[in-house]
From TrEMBL, chain A:
Residues 3-187 form the Electron transfer flavoprotein alpha/beta-subunit N-terminal domain. One of its GO terms (biological process) is fatty acid beta-oxidation using acyl-CoA dehydrogenase. The lineage of its organism: Bacteria, Pseudomonadati, Bacteroidota, Cytophagia, Cytophagales. Belongs to the ETF alpha-subunit/FixB family. This is Electron transfer flavoprotein subunit alpha. InterPro entries: DHS-like_NAD/FAD-binding_dom, ETF_a/b_N, ETF_a/FixB, ETF_asu_C, Rossmann-like_a/b/a_fold. The keyword Flavoprotein applies.
Amino acid sequence: MSIIVYIEHIEGAIKKTSLEAASYASALAEQQGVDAKGVVLGTVSEDQLASVGTAGLSTVYHVNDDQLNAGVIQAHAEAVAQAFEKAGADTLILAKSSLGDAVAARLAVKLDAGYISNVVALPSTSGTYTVKRSIYTGKAFAESEITKTNKILGVKKNAVPLKTDGAPASVEALEVNLSEGAFAAKITSIDKANDEIPLPEADIVVSGGRGMKGPENWNLIEDLAKALGAATGCSKPVSDSGWRPHHEHVGQTGVKVAPTLYVAVGISGAIQHLAGVNASKYIVVINKDPEAPFFKAADYGIVGDAFEVLPKLTEAIKAVK
Amino acid sequence: MKILVCITHVPDTTSKIQFTDNNTKFDKTGVQYIIGPYDDYALARAVELRDQTGGKLTVLNVGEAETEPTLRKALAIGADEAVRINAEPTDAFFVATQIANHAKEIGYDMILMGRESIDFNGGMVHGMVAELLGMPSVSPVMKLDLEGDTAKIAREIEGGKEYLEIKLPFVAGCQEPIAEWKIPNMRGIMSARSKPLQVQELSGDVVATKTVAYEMPPAKGAVKLIDSNNVQELVELLKSEAKVL
């Protein structure tokens, strides 16, 4: 038996969260004394493919089919199922993501597997096979048992340490047979801001709320983000008012982030927003209202006017970078 | 047009999450239950599409009798009929099997639900239902329009959107801003009382996972407040403690 990792990439660059999933898989493989392989779909360079070896994978199956560059859910599920069989695997590991969720759910049925998502630790395999996962949007954990032979584990962002000292992986081309129905959902166009750090992948996030008073003041958020090398986010009222696009909305019904550092500026900290950020390692809150509930969830806080604090903070960070 | 919207019955986001029976059961004491926020978006869009195309909008929940007020609320929002599959929703595969078995009998043109529930956050039921029914699935869907038998969909991807076309039938996991949440009006609430709510017994007791225990995260320490005139102190902490600089 072996373990296989479904590895996602963004236009040929392997995603950090997928490397986390690969690191998880390699630790699991070591625990069980088996081998961990990966599968990558679409156009990716040999160097990028081999680089997943640093996270501990021995082999990478590469399905070099440019129809798979976009996240065609059914086609990805079919391709990964074939890689799973080729590897003789009984466990599929993937990073929790919108595409990963959609693909893994189909795979759970295809492979007759027990699927647990938002996994935060290695399974305990003495006796029953149980895994710890995050539930209630980060407000609690559950220990869940998988009762099937085949298993799928969706690893939560930033929950496992990244392994970086593995040897380059050997790359094997894999041919797959995709059904006609695999492309039933036809992608007609993609609309994407390419110059930004994608929010769900970012290690640092700077978010602004209504306290920023209007979209014309977002340069202050962007300047700080740039100085920190961060992605930018916003609260729900901000995206609802159209100040910022929806894909920047962080919260219960928006993007859930898990960066090392989350900086919230002019956001009061409604529970719906906190639900999207509570997996962050460190939280900085800047708000002029000392009673803002966000301070209770923060590690560091500054009570002050964002329009005064942000420029000073941006300069101070530039000075040390 | 036959539309099915599957809804979850979940604790309100502001609920205090706690467990009983030696951390093996969710403590329902004082918890306010709502339609899952993502499901609420799916329902709102389904009501609009039903109004546009005609036909019937069915809302479904896999749950015990306590979820009926949540189904009635969905009827008040605009669904035409409700189905409750009488079982405790213990596992995503179990829930997906119930939904798929029901859908096979009826033959819906479109099955919508939220991208994920806010209790277990699995985000897997829509994909499982689609695979069980051999239909295409899309998630997370933020825009959904119908042109004849083709759906035009925008799906959120990291840093942007992807536009798709799918022929009916299909399954979609939805999120904002697909539609604005609808608040039931008095007429809706009155008519919801007389709309049909059918209870079906479960079909196939198949689980793939089971939750054996719960745990609360460790409490957060107190915030370290920094003077707004001394941002340098924050920079030092980010360097020495958080190690992000």
